[in-house]
Design goal:
It comes from Gossypium raimondii (Peruvian cotton). The structure is a single chain. The termini are far apart. Helix 6 crosses helix 15 and helix 12 runs antiparallel to helix 13. The protein has 15 helices and three strands. Among the domains are: 31 residues, no CATH class; 143 residues, Cytochrome P450-Terp, domain 2 (Cytochrome p450-Terp, domain 2). The protein has 326 residues and is mainly alpha-helical. A hairpin with a 6-residue loop joins strand 1 and strand 2. The structure holds acetyl coenzyme *A (ACO). Acetyl coenzyme *A (ACO) binds next to helix 13.
C-alpha cells in the first residue's frame, strides 16, 4: 500500500506520467527513465529513485517543463549518492562555502541567486531572529514553556501569533507596494485610498518605534540594499509612503515587514533571475512571510531553552493588569 507521503506517486501514476513523457519525447525510452523498474525496487524494499531525477538526466536541456505530469514535485533529491537541493549536491554547497541564504534560494526559489541576494536573505533572517521577550510570539512561547510543554509546542505557540499585526505583513506589503508602484499611484493616492477602504497600510506602523526612534533593522536593510542592489525603486517608493504617513502620525513608520516586502520586490525585479510572471506568482502565493517565520523560530527556540534552563515556574499574569467587571 503506497502512502502519498512516502514513496511518491504510486506505480500506476508513475507509469502514466512516464508514458506521457515517452510519447512526447520519442528519444527517451521507458527503461531510460526507470519507470518499469518500480517492482524491482519494491522487491528489494528500497525507495524507487525519483522519476523527475531520471527524466531530467535523459531529456535535452531545451525540453519543456515535464513537472506538470507529476502530482508530487520535489527539489530535494535523496536518491543519488548524496542529497541535492534543486540539483546542487550537498558537497558542492559545502565546498563553495555557501550559506543558509543560498539553501533558501535553492529550496524556495529553485535557483542559485547571486551572492548579494542570498546575503540579503541571510541578513533578513539574522535581523528578524528575535525582538525580546515582550513581542507577541516570544511571550506565547515563554508562557507555553513555563506551562511545562515541550520544545515543539512552545515554538508553534509563538509562531501562531505571526500574522497581519505581527511579522506576517511582509507578503501584503509586497503585494500592495507592487500594485501601487507598478500602477503609478502616488503615495498620497495610495494611503488616502487605503484609508477610504478602511484598510491599514501593510508594512507601515509600529507599536513601539516612532519617527524619532527608527527601527535599526529597517535602516540596516536599507543600507545593504542601497549599497548592493542594482535598483531600489520599490524601497524608495515605500520610503515616500512613510514620509507621507509620518506627516499624519509619528507611529506610522516603515516597519521591518514593509522594508523586507519592498526590498524583496527590488531583489526579484533587479536581479534579472526571475521573469515577470515568476515575480507575480511569488508575490501572489506569498513566499515572504516565510522569511519572518523561519527567522523568528530561531529566537523562539532560544526563549524556550531559556525558560527550561532557568527552571521557570508556571506563568501567572499579574492581577493588577486585569479589570474585573460584573
Ligand atoms: C515585525 C512587525 O510585526 S512589524 C508590523 C507588521 N504589521 C503591519 O505592518 C500591519 C499594519 N500596521 C498595523 O496594523 C499597526 O501599525 C501595528 C499593529 C503594527 C501597530 O499598531 P499600534 O501601535 O497598536 O497602533 P494602533 O493600532 O493603536 O493605531 C494607532 C493609530 O494609527 C493608525 N494606524 C496604525 N497603523 C496604521 C497603518 N498601517 N495604516 C494606517 N493607519 C494606521 C490606526 O488607525 C490608529 O489610528 P486611530 O486611533 O485613529 O484609529
Amino acid at each position: 500500500m503506497h502512502s502519498p507521503y512516502s514513496l511518491g506517486p504510486p506505480p500506476n501514476r508513475r507509469l502514466d506520467g512516464c508514458n506521457r513523457i515517452t510519447s512526447l519525447f520519442p528519444s527517451v525510452s521507458i527503461t531510460d527513465i526507470g519507470c518499469n523498474r518500480h517492482s524491482e525496487f519494491e522487491a528489494e524494499n528500497r525507495d524507487p529513485p525519483s522519476i523527475p531525477n531520471f527524466i531530467f538526466r535523459f531529456l535535452p536541456s531545451s525540453s519543456p517543463d515535464v513537472s506538470q505530469f507529476f502530482p508530487f514535485q520535489i527539489s530535494t533529491s535523496s536518491s543519488g549518492e548524496e542529497p541535492c537541493y534543486a540539483g546542487v549536491p550537498m558537497s558542492s554547497i559545502v565546498e563553495q562555502g555557501l550559506g543558509v541564504g543560498d539553501v533558501i534560494s535553492l529550496l524556495w526559489f529553485k535557483r542559485s541567486l547571486p551572492r548579494y541576494c542570498t546575503k540579503f536573505i541571510e541578513i533578513c533572517i539574522m535581523l528578524c531572529a528575535d525582538h525580546g521577550p515582550c513581542a507577541s510570539g516570544a511571550h506565547n512561547t515563554i508562557v507555553t514553556a513555563r506551562a511545562g510543554k515541550d520544545l515543539v509546542s512552545s515554538l508553534v505557540s509563538g509562531l501562531l501569533t505571526i500574522g497581519p499585526r505581527f511579522g506576517g505583513a511582509i507578503d501584503d506589503a509586497a503585494r500592495y507596494f507592487k500594485d501601487v508602484y507598478d500602477g503609478g499611484l502616488t503615495p498620497y493616492e495610495f494611503v488616502e485610498g487605503m484609508k477610504k477602504k478602511g484598510i491599514r497600510v501593510p508594512g507601515i506602523g509600529h507599536r513601539i518605534k516612532r519617527g524619532d526612534n527608527r527601527d535599526k533593522r529597517v535602516e540596516l536593510l536599507q543600507l545593504f540594499a542601497r549599497t548592493n542592489f542594482p535598483s531600489v525603486k520599490y524601497m524608495e517608493y515605500a520610503v515616500q509612503v512613510e514620509t507621507y504617513t509620518l506627516s499624519k502620525a509619528n507611529n506610522l513608520v516603515l516597519n521591518v515587514d514593509g522594508a523586507i516586502g519592498s526590498l524583496f520586490l527590488d531583489l526579484l525585479a533587479g536581479s534579472g533571475m526571475f521573469t515577470k510572471q515568476e515575480i507575480d506568482e511569488i508575490v501572489e502565493i506569498g513566499y515572504l512571510n516565510g522569511l519572518f517565520v523561519l527567522a523568528r523560530s530561531i529566537g523562539l527556540i532560544g526563549h524556550t531553552f531559556d525558560q527550561k534552563r532557568l527552571k521557570q515556574p508556571l506563568y501567572h499574569h499579574p492581577w493588577e493588569d486585569v479589570l474585573y467587571t460584573k
